[in-house]
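User: I'm writing a tutorial on reading structure tokens. Could you give me a worked example: one chain, its sequence, then its tokens, then a sentence or two explaining what the tokens reveal?
Assistant: Sure. Here is the example chain.
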Amino acid sequence: VTINERVKFFRKNVLHMNQTEFAVSIGMKQTSVSSFEKEGATVSDQSIKAISSVHGVREEWLRTGAEPMFIQTPNSAL
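And here are its predicted structure tokens:
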């Protein structure tokens, strides 16, 4: 599975967003999302960082598919 397929999977199957909604959420245009979801297209570091910071998905998962998908926060012990 490529980074392009992971971005598309995350947008459609996890977030249940169309390209326009997803683009707005990360401060981009729909055409940008469409282009980096195409097989073989380059997804810029800036795009990866935006997706990660806005949606809590790990950059490593986006880049390589290494689990877990989401950023884990340590549980506070009270």
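What the tokens reveal: The chain is about 55% helix and 0% strand. Residues 19 and 57 are 17 Å apart (CA to CA).
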